[in-house]
C-alpha cells in the first residue's frame, strides 16, 4: 500500500490493534467481516459453544432435566471399563477399515472405465451417481428386503450361482459386511471426483511412456496412480470422517444387533444420550470421538507424505 | 528393447500384419469393450436396489414370499400405494418435510452467497486463515455436537419444533460456502472495479453484479440443500419427538414397528419418498455434476 494511505491510529485502543493496516485495508477488513458475520455467528453458536457445552457435560452427570452435577473424570473412567464402548469402537474402526479401501478400489475402477472413449458414458455416469443422492434410510430399508434370508433377491442369486445362502443381517459375522456393501452404493460420487482427477493428467505423459514401451499396466502404476494420490487422499479423509459417523444404516437395518456386532460408536452414543438419558456420559463419548477423529486424520495426513505426490499440482 | 524392435522389422510381412491386427483388436477390446462391460455390470448392480424397490412396491403380499422370487410382478397391485399412504399420516409428514426443505433451501441460498462473497471478492488481512477454519469445520462430525446441541436447543424451547433444523441453515454451511467461493473467484475482478469507479458500494456490487452472475452456483447450492434436507434422518430423529412433527424419513419407521413387516407397503412408501429426489436429480443432473467438479478442483 502506498505511504499516503497510511494513517496513524488515533486512540490508544486503536494503537493496540493497529497492526499497521492502511485505511483501505482496515475498511476491507470491516467489510469482509461484515459479509462473513453470519458464518462467524453460526460458527460460535452451533460449533464452538456446543463443543464447550459438551466438554462441561462430559464432566457431569446429566439426565437432560434439571442441572448437570459435576462428577469430574467419572464418565471417562466408566468409559474405560465399559465393554460396549470398546465393542462399539471396534465395530466402527472395523467398518471404516473395510469400507474406505473398498470404496477407493470400486471408485477407481469405475472412473478408469468412464475415462475410456465410450460414447454413451453420460448414461453410465447418471446411473452410477444416482444412488449417492438417494436418502440412506430408504436404501437401508431396500437392503433389509434385498438381504432377507428367505425371500431376498441376494440369496436367490447366490443359490442360482451354486453358493450357500447367507444370513446377511442376522449373522454377526456378516452384519458389518452387509453395511459395508450398502456404503459402496456411494462409489459413483467418488468416481466422479476421481474422473476429474484423471482428466487433469496431461496426455503427453502417457505418450512419452508409450514411446518408452510402457504397457497399460505400467502406465497405470507409474503415471495414473501416483498423480491420483492427492485425490485419493481427499476421498480417504472424507471416507474416514463419514465412516466414523456410521449410524443410520445400523439403526434401521439391525438395531445394533445381532449380538452387538453393528453397535457402532455413534449408535451407542445416541443410545446413551437419547434413550438412556445419560447425556454426560454421551458427551464424554462425543469428546473421545472428536479426539479419535483428529488423531486418525492426522495419522492419515502423516502417512500420506509417503505416498501422495504433489509434483505436478 | 531396441534389439526386439529391429528383429520385428525383419519379420515377413504377414507376421507383421497379423501382429498389428492383433494389437488393434487388443486396443479395441481394451478401450471400447472392457470399459463397457465394467460400466454395464456396475450399473446393473447400482440399479438393482431401486428396481427391486419398485417391483416389490407393486406386488401383492402373497407374491412376496414365493420362491424363487418373481423378477417382474405377476400381478400388479397398485393399491399398495394408497394403502401405504393411509397407513401413516403420509400427507402430514410430506408437509413437514416440505416445510423443512423449503426453509433449508431459503437459508442456504441467502446465507452462503453473502459469506462466500466475503471470502472471495474482498481482500482483507487474515481472510485465508479464517477460511481454513471454515474448511476445518467440515471435518467436525455432527455426532460430536449433537448431545450438546440438543441440550442448547432444549433450553431455548426449540425441541419438537422445526427451528433446530432450519435456523442453523441461515448461517452458512462450510461445503456450500466453499462451492460458492470457488465460483465467485472465477469472476474477473475488473467487473467489481468498474462498478467501484462508478461509485457503487460493496453491497450494491454484491446484489446487482455478482449475485446475477452466480445463478448457476446458487442453483447448485439450492439443489444440494434441498436433497440434504429431504434426506436428513439424524436431525429429525433427535429433535422431533411428537408424532405429528415427524418427517417422511422418520415416518417410514412405522412400517417396521409391525410384527411382520409388509415390505410391499414399505417399498411403496419408500418409492414415493425417493421419487422426488430421483426426479430432481434427473432434471438437474448437470448441476449435481458441476457441484462435484467445483468441489473437487482446488
Automatic annotation (TrEMBL), chain B:
It is a multi-pass membrane protein. SUPFAM superfamilies: MetI-like (SSF161098). Pfam families: BPD_transp_1. Keywords: Cell membrane, Membrane, Transmembrane, Transmembrane helix, Transport. The chain crosses the membrane at residues 33-54, 99-119, 131-150, 162-184, 205-230, 263-284. InterPro entries: MetI-like, MetI-like_sf. Its main location: membrane. GO terms for biological process: transmembrane transport. It is found in: Cell membrane. Residues 94-284 form the ABC transmembrane type-1 domain. GO terms for cellular component: plasma membrane. It comes from the Bacteria. The keyword Transmembrane helix applies. Belongs to the binding-protein-dependent transport system permease family. This is Carbohydrate ABC transporter permease. It comes from Rubrobacter taiwanensis.
